[in-house]
Amino acid sequence: MRIELKDGAGGEAMEKIIREIISAYDFSDYGEVPLSALDDSAVVEGVAFTTDSYTVRPIFFPGGDIGRLAISGTVNDLCAIGAKPMAISTAMIVEEGFSLEDLKKIVGSMASTAKEANVAIVTGDFKVVEKGSVDKIFITASGIGKRHPLLDENLKKANCHARWLMDSNLRKGDKIIITGYVGDHGIAVMTARGEYGVESNIKSDVAPLHRVLERSLEIGGVVALKDPTRGGVAEALNEWSLKSKVGIELYEKEIPVREEVASICELLGIDPLTLGNEGKFLIAVRENYAEDVLECIRELPESKDARIIGEVTEEHNYVVLRTEVGGRRIVERPIGDPVPRIC
Amino acid sequence: MRIELKDGAGGEAMEKIIREIISAYDFSDYGEVPLSALDDSAVVEGVAFTTDSYTVRPIFFPGGDIGRLAISGTVNDLCAIGAKPMAISTAMIVEEGFSLEDLKKIVGSMASTAKEANVAIVTGDFKVVEKGSVDKIFITASGIGKRHPLLDENLKKANCHARWLMDSNLRKGDKIIITGYVGDHGIAVMTARGEYGVESNIKSDVAPLHRVLERSLEIGGVVALKDPTRGGVAEALNEWSLKSKVGIELYEKEIPVREEVASICELLGIDPLTLGNEGKFLIAVRENYAEDVLECIRELPESKDARIIGEVTEEHNYVVLRTEVGGRRIVERPIGDPVPRIC
C-alpha cells in the first residue's frame, strides 16, 4: 500500500494512519494529556509540548509566509490546551540553491511573530539537502508551555473537572464561538497558486492568538479551545463531538464567511467549513459565560469579528448545521483536504 | 546568494548561517542555556529542549534506519546537556506514494528505540506532500527533559559552577573520553549508498546513550558531554575548545578507529575525525575522576570500547593531534561534510 495525499490532510484518512502509527508506540497513555488523546498539545509533568511541520506552498502568500505560519501555529497549539508558551524550536530543511535573501525574510518573519507572541525561539536545526530533495523549504516548529496562570480559576468557574482545555470537555448547553471569518487562509493560499484560474483579494488570517486565550480565561467558563487548521471548522467540531460524545448544532446564518470566500467556494464546490484557518480559534464556553467572553475578545483586533455560531446539544452525536431556510444537514469530517499543503 | 550543501553540514559554514539567523531573533539570551550558547539543548525554566531534522539517505542502512536515528539523536542531545529525557515528539513529512510498509517499519523502529531509552513519544505530526516534493521521508524529532537527579552532585564533585553540562565548562587538566570506535555511522551510510564504489561490513553505531550519562554522573566529575554527529569528533572538540577557551590535545594512538574504517578513509582521503557518529559521546571529565568514569561506562555494551583520547591544555586554544610518530598537527573544524545527509 502507498501513502496518498489525503493521508496527511488532517481529516479522517489521516486519523486512520495516525491511529495505526500510535498503536506501535508504547506509553501512549503517558502524561496528563497523553498521545492517545490526540489533542493539540500533549502535557507531561506540567509541561505542554507540541510539534508541527510546515510545508505550505507557496512559501510567501498574501498575508503571511511559512515563517509566520510556523510560529503562529505553534503558539496556537499550546494556547489551545490552556498553556502559556515558554519557548519554541525551529528546524529548517532547505533545498540546495535556495535564496539566502528569502531565507532571511522567513527567519525575520519567525523572529517578529515570536516577538509579537512574546515567546523566545531557543533552539533549532538547519539542514540543507540536494536540489530536488525538498520543495524549497520545510520548517518544523515545536513548542513548550506551562499551565496558564488563569486556567485553574477559569476551569473552576466552568465547573469543569479536567485539568486542561481538552477536546473531551464539552457538555450540553456550551456555546461555540468562532473568533472571526472562516476560510481566509485556505482561499489566500489556494488563489496564490493560481492553479484554479481564480484570483482573489483575500489575505491569510495567520496570527498568534495568545491574547485571545488570555482574555477568554480572564472571563472564565472556557472548557475547550481549538485552532481549525487542516480540515477546518468541520474537522475541529467533529473532533469535539466525537471526543466529548456530544452533538453540536451550528447556526448557518451566524457563521462569518467573507462574500469573496463564499463565492469562490461556490464556484469550486468547496465547503468553507472544510477550509483551513491559521488565525482563528473555536472556543467552547459554558452558556452563562459565553456573552461575556464574546464581548471581551471582540476588543482585540484579531478576534473583533467573533461570533457565537452554535451550541452543544445531546440530541445527536454529530455536527449539524441549521440552515438559514430552516433545514438541517450533517457536517461530515472531511476525508481529505480541498486544498493540500495549506500549512 | 544561494544556500549550498556545506551550509547545512554542521561545520564552520553552517555556524556562520546559524549566527546570521540568530542575529534576527530577539531573546537569544533567554533561558538558563540560551540560544546564543549554541549547545546541544536549550534550557528554559528548568526544562531542557532540543530539536533536529533527520534527512538521512538511505533511510534504511546497516545498523539502523531514520527512525532509530531520530529517537537516538534526540535522547542524546538531551543527555548531552545533563538532562533526563521526559518526552519526545516526532513530525514526519512523507512523499506521496511512499510505501505504507516502510512507514510502519520506521515507526516501529522509533517505538522500539524510545522504549529502549525509556522515554515516551507523546505528540507528533504527519504530513504528505506531492511526489517529488520530498525525498521519501524526513523526520523532525524534538525532546524535552528535566534536570538529571545526579547532575548536582556530579557538578559539585567537579567543582564546576555551571548549572548544566555546557560546552564552555572545560578547564586545563580535564580528560577527554570517547565512548567507542569513531566514524562507523558515516562509513556505514556512505557505503550503503554505493556511490563511491566502496563496500564495507561496517554498521552504524546509532543508539540512545542515556545509560552512559547515568553511569558517568554516578561517578561524578563530568563537566561536558557531546555527541559528535555532523562534523564528527573534529567539530565537537573544536566547539569545546572555542567555547571553553582552552586547547585540547589528542593522542592519535588512543583514538579507536576500526581498521576497515581507517582504510576506506585513507582510500577516499577523509579524516575519520570528521565523520559523523550517532552512538558515541565525548565526555570531558576532571582528571581525578577520569579513570573511574572510564571503568564504569566500560561495563555497558554501548561504551565498552571507551578510551581516554586526550586532555585539556592551556598551551594553545585549538585542537592538536599528537601523532604516533611524535609529530603534531592541528585538527581543524570541518568546513563542510565529507558525507552529506548522514543524519
Plain-language structure description:
The structure is a homodimer of 343-residue chains. Chain A is an alpha+beta fold and 343 residues long. In chain A, the strands form three sheets. A seven-stranded mixed beta sheet of chain A has the order 9-11-8-12-10-13-14. Chain A has a five-stranded mixed beta sheet with strand order 1-2-7-5-6, with helices on one face. Chain A is 31% helix and 24% strand. In chain A, α6 crosses α9. The first copy, chain A, starts with 11 loop residues before the first helix and ends in a 13-residue tail after the last strand. In chain A, α3 (100-116) links the parallel β5 (83-95) and β6 (120-129).
Helix-strand blueprint:
The structure is a homodimer.
Chain A: H1 12-24, E1 42-44, E2 47-54, E3 60-61, E4 64-65, H2 66-81, E5 83-95, H3 100-116, E6 120-129, E7 137-147, H4 151-157, E8 175-178, H5 184-193, H6 210-219, E9 222-226, H7 232-244, E10 247-251, H8 259-268, E11 282-285, H9 287-297, E12 307-313, E13 319-322, E14 328-330
Parallel strand pairs in A: 5-6, 10-13
Antiparallel strand pairs in A: 1-2, 2-7, 3-4, 5-7, 8-11, 8-12, 9-11, 10-12, 13-14
List keywords for this structure.
five-stranded mixed beta sheet; globular; 343 residues; 14 strands; homodimer; 9 helices; seven-stranded mixed beta sheet; alpha+beta; Phosphoribosyl-aminoimidazole Synthetase, Chain A, domain 2
CATH architecture of chain A: Alpha-Beta Complex
Class of chain A in CATH? Alpha Beta
Number of E strands of chain A: 14
- Low-confidence segments of chain A, given as residue ranges, are none
Query: Please, what is the CATH homologous superfamily of chain A?
Result: PurM-like C-terminal domain
Largest sheet: number of strands, sense, barrel closure of chain A: 7 strands, mixed
The proportion of strand residues of chain A reads: 15-25%
Number of domains of chain A: 1
The percentage helix of chain A is 25-40%
The value of Rg of chain A in angstroms is 19 Å
Major protein interface: A-B, 80 and 80 residues
- The mean pLDDT of chain A is 94
Which secondary-structure class do the elements of chain A indicate? alpha+beta
